[in-house]
Structures are given as structure tokens and as C-alpha cells.
Amino acid sequence: MRVLVTSSRNTFALDLIRKLGSVGHTVFASDTYDGAVGSHSRFLAGHLTTPSPRFETDAFIAAVSAYVTEHDIDLIIPTFEEVFHLAARATDLPAGTRLYAGRFSDLARLHDKASFQRLAQDAGVPIPETVVVTSPDELRTAIDHFPRYFARAAFSRGGVGLLTNTGPLAGKVPIEDCVPTPEQPWLVQPFVDGPMVCTYSVVVAGRVQAHTTYKAAEQWAHSTAIAFVAVDSTDTLRYTQQLVDALDPGFTGQISFDFVDHGTDAAPDYKIIECNPRPTNGVILLDADDVSKAIQGELAAPVVAIPGTQRQITLAVIADAFTEPLSHLPKTLHDLLTVRDVGAGWWDDAAMLWSPATIVHGAKISHGDRKEALAALGDDIVWNGEPIAGMSETDAAALEAVHASRA
């Protein structure tokens, strides 16, 4: 295949590029700035710098389309929220080129955390009690309902901007900074004890082809995972297939879920929290050949990551250790000796040397506000539920239906 991987700034995008390139596919990459790590992998045949899909949608679609035509690309694989802009404008992409993603209507239902709660309930997947709020007063009333609470915007990501009174993030976000609206609602749930468990799946024609379930062995600032360990996939694979079955028949693409496990190691008890209808770091725990075969729909049964498999983003683990050295440094030293880095064995070190460019990119978007830099790293490629320029009347109607399903 000739493949274009978009939003190449992410570690998991770089991993996907390496895996597809290493098994013989011709891979290209794109992002909105030239310093994206995945755009400098030795496994690439070329890379493109595009306008922002969020702020310059027409120009983004035109740039991608021209590049796809020029390089005779068969398949576009989105890796972040540009997937929504590409899906909403799929008919504007060159004929004969496949977009590896579901229909916009399904993606929107999965991404909007409020509508996703309804979807999970209908699919028979356990969820915590959930209150959707659309004003600051409703937010205050809802958190008073739970002795221990957990709240976040319906459109949020990366563990950033969480309002809670429990755990290491308690009080980090003032309630005055949280402003739910009918267009941008928030979800309030009881704080569920237990570790976060994440999944990543490749789905073709409505069937899961590849699946990983993993815990975050380390997190950056108690939010984004930077070290990963695979765990048993029995329950999460079943729940993932139930959710896929609740979508339009024939769903194809990458999909990821977050669960909280408040059971035991011997008897997990999962409640689903949210969905990212795109890849996450779970892809790192799969073999290259399995990823390639899964994307092409060649597997007769789902392949799953072997429990106990571990990987880490070593540079991030080291940096995080020095934010809280007394608590983090001993574990970090152990992990440096025992856990493989995500880039180990690829002989592709030049790509990660571009990591500072991503931090600079986030800092520019956040206008130099250091505490907002993490949230801003993807600000030019996210989608927060707004209408997309040039979207069809059918997709616009689907978006309205998603908003209505929050009730």
C-alpha cells in the first residue's frame, strides 16, 4: 500500500509509520508544522506540511488532496482529531483514495463524551452514573450530588482540564475556570476508585482485527500516559465489539477507549469513561506485521497484545521524574533498566530528536503560557463539536442529532 499518516507529531503516529514502513508499505506523513517527529522517520518516502484542519479546513483538504494525487496514495490514516475534518469532507478527497475512518456521524457520537455515554448504555457496556451539565450553576449542583466527583468537558482530551476533589489532581482546576454551555457541556460522575485502563483497536467492516489493553505505568503530570504495560484483554475486547456493533454496519477505522477498573487483578470490574475514535499509544504494544495485517483486514480472529508487554517514552519518563523526584525517581531508575523504549530496535533516533519542536509548537499556540502548553499541543488539529466548513447537509444533520442525544 501507499499510505499517508496524518498528524505525525504524536509518538503513536511515529510508531505506526515505523511499523507500516518496516513491512514494505510506502509511507508518507503530514502535519501542520515541519518539526513533527513522525515527519522525520527514516521509514518515510516523504512528508507534507499542511494548513490547520481546524482553522483552515478548505486549505487543509486541498493540500492533502493534491499530495495524495501527486504521490498516488491509496490510503489516508488519520491519527488525531483531523479525522473529523477528513471524514466530513471525504467526498472532496481524490477518487479511489480510501480514508481509514468511520463515517462522520459515528465518529461524532463516539467523540462527544455526553452522547457517548448514551451509546455505551445502549450497547450494554457498564458506565458510571453520569450527569450532563450545560451551565456553571448546573455544574455546582451536580458536584454537590457526589461526595467524591470527577468532571470534564464533553470535548476534552489527554487528561487535561479535569475538575475533581479526589486523587492527585484534586483542586488543580478551579471551578471558576469551568464554564459549561449548551454547545460545550460538561460531564459529572462519581469518582471511581481504581486504575485507568486504556484500549486501542483496529476495526475492519465492523469486526475487531487487533486489540490492546494497557495500563499507564507512568503518567506525565498525572494525566497523559508515558509508560505502558499490556494487561488481559478478555473483557475489553468484548466491550469494544459490543460498541462497534452499536455503530453503523461496516465501521472501519481505529478506535480507543478509557475504562476505570475498580475490581481486582483476578477479577477486573470495568466501567467505561470515554472514547477516542483514533489511535492511541496502545498501537506501540502490537507487532508490526499484526498491525499491517489488521489494517488490511487479513486476520481471521483478533490479535491481542501479550499481557506483560511493556514500553515507555524514555525521555518523558526521565523528565517527569524530576518534577517529583522523591516519589518518582526510584521507579524511574528501575524502569530505565528494565523497560524498552518505544524507539528501541528501530534505528530511527533522528525522528525523536525533533521532539523539542513539538514543545515549541505547543508553546506558540498557548502564547507562552507554560501551564497551557500541554493542552495546546494539539489545538490546531482538534475538533470540539462545531460545524465543519464544507460539511454536507447529511453530516450537519447528524451533528445536530448527536447534540440532541445528550439529553
UniProtKB/TrEMBL annotation:
Stretches assigned to coiled coil: none
Domain ATP-grasp as annotated: residue spans: 117-305
TM region(s), chain numbering: none
SUPFAM superfamilies given in the database record: Glutathione synthetase ATP-binding domain-like
Gene Ontology MF term list: ATP binding; metal ion binding
Keywords noted in UniProt: ATP-binding, Nucleotide-binding
InterPro entries assigned to the protein according to its UniProt record, in alphabetical order: ATP-grasp
Official protein name in the record: ATP-grasp domain-containing protein
Organism annotation: Microbacterium enclense
Lineage: Bacteria, Bacillati, Actinomycetota, Actinomycetes, Micrococcales
